[in-house]
Amino acid sequence: MSRHPLRSAAAACFALLLAVLGGIPSAAAASPPTAPELPSPTGKQLIGTKSLHLVDTTRTDPWKPEAGHRQLMASLWYPALRPSARPAPYASAALSTAIFGTDALAAVRTHATVNAPAAPAARPLVVLSPGFGMSRLTLTTLAEELAGRGYVVAALDHTYEAPVEFPGGRIEPCLICERPDFGRVVPNRVKDIGFLLDRLTRPGTGVRVDATRIAVAGHSIGGASAVELLGTDSRVDAAANLDGDFFTAPPARALKRPVLLFGAQRTKDSVPNANWNERRRHFSGWQRWLDVPTGGHMTFTDVPWIGSRFDLGNRIPADQRDMAFGTLPGDRATPVVRAYVAAFMDRHLRGRPSPLLDRPSAAYPEVRFVK
């Protein structure tokens, strides 16, 4: 398991998010005089976005059986022919309040427009799964970067594992956050993502995907779930785990498809983290393990950027700040994560090798290759 007790308990994401951002009165986190804009994507594509309300009629909800069929919410980001007239909000005021304890995040500007007409060509698909207790919106900067580079990106909320807003303004809370069963969370997420792939690879969303080029990435337990799915779903070509411990047994057969392990503080005195080191022995295909020693568990999300813009970072207990953020500034975390995740997707979905994945880069001295 991890060297960090909080991360090892895997209540890290939820507890940490609450400590950093949650339960804060609006007055303590008021919007800056000018609402901030997310970091600009580096790609050239215009970006559209839309929300999907999905109902899996083959499953009863595992966390709330009385709710009936499993219901999920996903966001799509995609290359657009032209922008629509409606800029996409980062979050609704209600969801911002439910997650962050303030409605201030509703004012954050993004780089997508709602329901913009999609470019006609089928594009490679990247699915994103957030950390436990965290909303899909905390992966927006990564999603916009990939969409701006020509990918279709789908970020999925896992209902009852975080606050989730459904059409009509209904917000379902995190039912299992106080007593999570992570041995069940991972296989349940695998089913959620598999169902999403079912929907996205057939007509009906208005956005065309190339079903022969699919990758899954995730933060924390979302990353562990991505790798788990890679070993069970033949449609998935590659997986990226962003600082997520593994909570399930290794696969019976070695995993031959590409895996990126991209973490923070997972080496100490050149000793690799035991949780990842043990699982890595079961990868027989292309693999990389990258570490950001100055980063933290939240480096791979929008949380450091949010905290710096809304002056919330000092709300975390002093003994947890290093694990949460490290010393890497939020403005630097975003380009580092974007660059390496995009390089991984380009290599394995488009056949475009990048030197970023082959050797250390002077442009990104924060990233260390773990042997």
Could you describe the 3D structure shown?
The chain is an alpha/beta fold. It has a single domain (5-359), classed as Rossmann fold (3-Layer(aba) Sandwich). Helix content is 27%, strand content 23%. It is built from ten helices and 15 strands. The chain has helices at 5-8, 12-20, 93-100, 140-148, 182-200, 221-230, 274-280, 303-310, 318-325, 330-349; strands at residues 46-60, 69-80, 87-89, 109-114, 123-129, 152-157, 164-165, 171-172, 209-219, 238-242, 259-264, 267-268, 271-272, 287-292, 368-369. An eleven-stranded mixed sheet has the order 3-4-1-2-6-5-9-10-11-14-15, with helices on both faces. Strands 7-8 form a two-stranded antiparallel ribbon. Strands 12-13 form a two-stranded antiparallel ribbon. α4 crosses α10, α5 packs across α6 (221-230) and α8 (303-310) packs antiparallel against α10. Mean pLDDT is 90; it is low at 1-6, 8-12 and 22-31. Residues 30-50 are annotated as: Disordered. One of its GO terms (molecular function) is hydrolase activity. Keywords: Hydrolase, Lipid degradation, Lipid metabolism, Signal. This is Dienelactone hydrolase. Residues 1-29 form the signal peptide.
**Structural class of the helix and strand makeup?**
alpha/beta
Overall number of strands: 15
The CATH H-level homologous superfamily: Alpha/Beta hydrolase fold, catalytic domain
Helix content: 25-40%
Second rung of CATH, namely the architecture: 3-Layer(aba) Sandwich
Give me the Rg, rounded: 19 Å
Q: How many domains make up the 3D coordinates?
A: 1
Shape: globular
How many helix segments?
Answer: 10
Instruction: Catalogue the unreliable spans.
Output: 1-6, 8-12, 22-31
Order of helices and strands: HHEEEHEEHEEEHEHEEEEHEHHHE
Give the neighbour order of strands across the main sheet. 3-4-1-2-6-5-9-10-11-14-15
Q: Give the CATH class.
A: Alpha Beta
Mean of pLDDT: 90
Predict the CATH topology. Answer: Rossmann fold
Strand content bin: 15-25%
Kindly report how far apart the N and C termini lie: 19 Å
User: Sheet with the most strands?
Assistant: 11 strands, mixed
